[in-house]
Amino acid sequence: MPDYKSFETERLLLKPTSEEDAQFILELLNTPKWIAFIGDRNVKTIEDAKDYIEKRITAQFNKVGFGNYTVIRKSDGNKVGSCGLYDREGLEGVDIGFAFLPQFEKKGYAYESASKVLDIAINEFSINEINAITVKENIASQQLLVKIGLTFDKMINIPNDEEELMLYRLRTNH
């Protein structure tokens, strides 16, 4: 993978997710909230995680130059979550998303990393339409999306998913 840029906030390092994050991705994708709110990605082994990273994350970085960032706490090097920009089928613009391990929730890391990712979307990548999708049950995600400046737009369906999703949107004049 070419050397894609990492980003920093006061407490966090956002590093492009790579194969060395396979153990972390395996853990994150199998948390109860990931499975309930994002969906089972059928990643059950380290090999599955490496394959997921290569086909879903590295492939997007190579195609568009941005993607999923592993969120690392600077104070101790712990991988706490992921946050990124996704070129998602069925959505115009770019999708912002985030997920954190349960033990690192409610500490402001999602807000801190999502705010930074939104900033780089606009100022580094000149993206002028940021979207986010979430299930109706994920109130915490909806609140965070509003807090970083997105507003609810409408209910949508995306390809290969029967569940109706809430679409949040932010358009900039960049």
Task: Write a brief structural summary.
With 174 residues, the protein is of the alpha+beta class. The protein has helices at residues 22-29, 32-38, 46-64, 109-123, 139-147, and strands spanning 7-8, 12-16, 68-73, 79-86, 94-100, 129-134, 151-156, 165-171.
Give structural notes.
This protein has 174 residues and is α+β, with helices and mostly antiparallel strands. It has a single domain, classed as 3-Layer(aba) Sandwich (Aminopeptidase). The protein is 33% helix and 27% strand. The protein contains five helices and eight strands; from the N terminus they run E-E-H-H-H-E-E-E-H-E-H-E-E. The protein has helices at residues 22-29, 32-38, 46-64, 109-123, 139-147; strands at residues 7-8, 12-16, 68-73, 79-86, 94-100, 129-134, 151-156, 165-171. Strand 1 and strand 2 form a beta hairpin. The radius of gyration is 15 Å and the shape is globular. It starts with 6 loop residues before the first strand and ends with a strand.
- Computed over alpha carbons, the radius of gyration is 15 Å
User: What do we call the CATH homologous superfamily?
Assistant: Gcn5-related N-acetyltransferase (GNAT)
Q: How many domains in all?
A: 1
**Taking all residues together, what is the mean pLDDT?**
94
Globular, elongated, flat, extended or rod-shaped: what is the shape? globular
- The portion of residues forming beta strands comes to 25-35%
CATH architecture: 3-Layer(aba) Sandwich
Helix/strand structural class? alpha+beta
Strand order across the largest sheet: 1-2-3-4-5-6-8-7
Percent helix range = 25-40%
CATH topology: Aminopeptidase
Low-confidence stretches: none
Number of strands: 8
